[in-house]
Design goal:
Strand order of the largest sheet: 6-3-8-7
Mean pLDDT: 88
CATH architecture: Alpha-Beta Complex
Number of domains: 1
Order of helices and strands: EEHEEEEHEEEHH
CATH topology: Nucleoside Triphosphate Pyrophosphohydrolase
Number of strands: 9
CATH class: Alpha Beta
Oligomer: single chain
Shape: globular
Largest sheet: 4 strands, mixed
Low-confidence stretches: 1-10
Helix content: 10-25%
Strand content: 25-35%
CATH superfamily: Nucleoside Triphosphate Pyrophosphohydrolase
Structural class: alpha+beta
Distance between the termini: 46 Å
Length: 187
Amino acid sequence: MTIPSIRGGALFGSRALDSLTLVDANGEETGTATLEEMHLPPGRRHRAFSVYLFDPAGRLFVHQRFHGKALWGTYWTNSCCSHPYHGEAVGAAAKRRVGQELGVADPDLTELFGYEYRAEFEDIGVEHEYVHVFVGTVNPALIAVAPEEVEEFRWLEPAEVDALIASDEDTTPWFEIAWPKVRDRND
């Protein structure tokens, strides 16, 4: 199998040159780099966010990432994840991306915690992120997925999310790391 080059935006397309924020282990800004530069091996630590949207019954919206995604395409993951642009507030970025990816305008989100992780995807690229984790509640009828972001989706009870992560289905590393703490957020 030939793996496409990450250089020149081949894998990140029009977003390859987006200016994002480099951070230290505490999530404090240390500089800027492009989306592409941050994901080239060995990876550069940068700010990111993950959103976990629940319906009023407590089910989590999970989705299979679009097959054309540069990293972890077709893997199951949490509701929405991305990066704020440099200078953009993390909460505002999370709301923006939920609107773009899932069609929910101005969701009510609460930041729960932050954490750092690093994961390599084959020999294509690296995620080295300080992730801000948000949760919110949404009416499932409001979801209108962007087909260039979401391959398939499900609403799962917490025990079903546990089973998905434990199954043979591919799940993203950031989802596997953060889910137990998100699941137990009210305990």
